[in-house]
Amino acid sequence: MTEVLGIFGPARATDRFLSIGTGIASNVKVEPISLPGSGTLKSYVSVATNSEITHIMFRTLIDAFAPTARQKKYWRLNVSKPIPGEEKVIEKGYMWWKTKHLVKVLDNYENPGDLDDIQALSKLKAWTVDYIKEEAKLIQDCVEAVQNSLAADARR
Fold it and tell me: Where does the source fall among the domains of life (predicted)?
């Protein structure tokens, strides 16, 4: 949304939004700040640059209110390879006071690789081809909405 305002200004009427992501990254464990060199910086950078939460909030607000209430006007394309969650047994405690606990490992995503990693691009390209096939209906809905919007503009 800030890109739209920055490029076109607040006076331009905008009735459709297409957000194109660069792939959903794997979950990264947030390390305690007290452990220097333990990946703390990497984990906080990952949290700060994860745009999926922003996407969910933005989609909900845009579709609900702007500019026409309860009309779909926001689409997000973002390649991913989900890894389903699982249950895992872990041990907690020390020495003979250990106990076993069943914990749910949250859903995750396979790492798409860094955008500047030339080796990872072939994997991302293959994922994208599959994604386009899987999301053909979503893409077609977006195309039709844009075409309808352009036709309405032409009639004005």
Answer: Eukaryota
Q: Indicate the average pLDDT of the chain.
A: 82
CB contact set of 94 (below 8 Å; sequence gap of 6+): none
Q: Could you tell me how many helices (H) and strands (E) the chain has, helices first?
A: 5, 6
Give 111's contacts (C-beta < 8 A, 6+ positions apart). Answer: 25, 26
Judged against a pLDDT cut of 80, whether residue 128 lies above it is answered with yes
Q: Is 94 exposed, middle or buried (0-12, 13-18, 19+ CB in 10 A)?
A: exposed
Q: Is residue 135 classed exposed, middle or buried when 0-12, 13-18 and 19+ CB atoms within 10 A define those classes?
A: middle
Residue type, 74: Y
Query: What does pTM read for this prediction?
Result: 0.67
> Is residue 27 a contact partner of residue 106, using CB atoms and an 8 Å limit?
yes
Residue 12, Cβ neighbours under 10 Å: how many? 9
- For residue 20, how far is the Cα from the chain centroid? 9
pLDDT surpasses 70 at 43: yes
Supply the Cα-derived Rg of the chain in whole angstroms. Answer: 21
